[in-house]
Design goal:
Elements: H1 8-36, H2 38-52, E1 57-63, E2 69-75, H3 91-94, H4 97-104, H5 112-118, E3 122-124, E4 150-152, H6 165-178, H7 181-197
Parallel strand pairs: 3-4
Antiparallel strand pairs: 1-2
Helix pairs in contact: 1-5
Length: 221
C-alpha cells in the first residue's frame, strides 16, 4: 500500500516518482513481452484468420486516463452471425470454441501490450470498459479513471467476472488509492496463476458480461 505522507510536498514528490517508475516498468516489460511472445502472437493471428476470418483484430474506443478515449486492440473472438432480422445474435451464440479458448487462456489480450507500449494503457490498472458507461458512474466510481487502464487489475485477481459491478468498482478505486510498483508485481503474478488455472474467466450466467446499467446496479460485468 502507498505510504502515508506527513508533508504534502514529499507526498507529491513520491507519487511523481512512483508514476515514472510505473511507466518505465510498463515500457520495459511490454517491449520485452512483445518480442518474446511474437511467435505466439503470430500463431494466434493465423488461428483467428483461419477459424474466424477477417478482421483478425477487434478494435474499440475505450476510456483511458481521465476518461480520454483511445483505441483498444484485442484478438477477435466472436463471429458476426446475424439472425433473420439482420441483427447480431446473442454473444453466447457468436462465441465459438476457439473464442472460448482464446479468452480462457487470455491470448485475446496479448495485442493490448501494444497499447501499453504506446502509453494508452498500463500493465496493471482498472480494466477499460465502454465509453457509454462514462455517464453512468457515480463520482466515486468515476475515480477509476484517475490512472491508466490496465491489461489486468486488482479487480481481475479478486473475482474478475465472478463479482458484481459495485464490488468491481470498489476494488478499482481501492487500487487507485493504494497502487505501488510492488502491488503491481503482486497482481501480475496472481494474474499468471489465474491464467494457468483458467479461473474467473467468465461469469456463470453469460459468455460475456451483462451491460453496466448505472448507479446502484448489481449486475455483473
Amino acid at each position: 500500500m502507498m505510504m502515508s505522507c506527513a508533508s504534502p510536498i514529499w507526498c507529491g514528490s513520491w507519487q511523481g516518482i512512483d508514476r515514472v517508475l510505473k511507466r518505465a516498468f510498463d515500457i520495459v516489460v511490454a517491449g520485452v513481452a512483445l518480442l518474446l511472445l511474437s511467435p505466439i502472437i503470430a500463431g494466434t493471428a493465423i488461428v483467428v484468420l483461419v477459424c474466424l476470418g477477417r478482421p483478425i483484430f477487434f478494435r474499440q474506443r475505450r476510456p483511458g486516463l481521465n476518461g480520454r478515449p483511445f483505441g483498444m486492440i484485442k484478438f477477435r473472438t466472436m463471429t458476426d452471425a446475424r439472425g433473420p432480422d439482420g441483427k447480431l445474435l446473442p454473444d453466447s451464440e457468436r462465441l465459438p470454441r476457439i473464442g472460448v479458448f482464446l479468452r480462457s487462456t487470455s491470448l485475446d489480450e496479448l495485442p493490448e501490450l501494444w497499447n501499453v507500449l504506446v502509453g494508452d494503457m498500463s500493465l496493471v490498472g482498472p480494466r477499460p470498459l465502454l465509453l457509454a458507461y462514462l455517464d453512468r458512474y457515480t463520482p466515486e466510481q468515476a475515480r477509476r479513471h484517475a490512472v491508466r487502464p490496465g491489461v489486468t487489475g486488482w479487480a481481475q485477481v479478486n473475482g474478475r467476472n465472478a463479482i458484481d459491478w459495485n464490488e468491481k468498482f470498489a476494488l478499482d478505486v481501492w487500487y487507485v488509492d493504494n497502487h505501488t510498483l510492488r502491488l503491481d508485481l503482486r497482481i501480475l503474478l496472481a494474474t499468471v496463476m489465474q491464467v494457468i488455472g483458467r479461473r474467473n474467466i467468465n461469469s456463470a450466467e453469460a459468455a460475456t458480461m451483462p451491460e453496466f446499467l448505472g448507479k446502484g446496479t448489481t449486475d455483473k460485468e
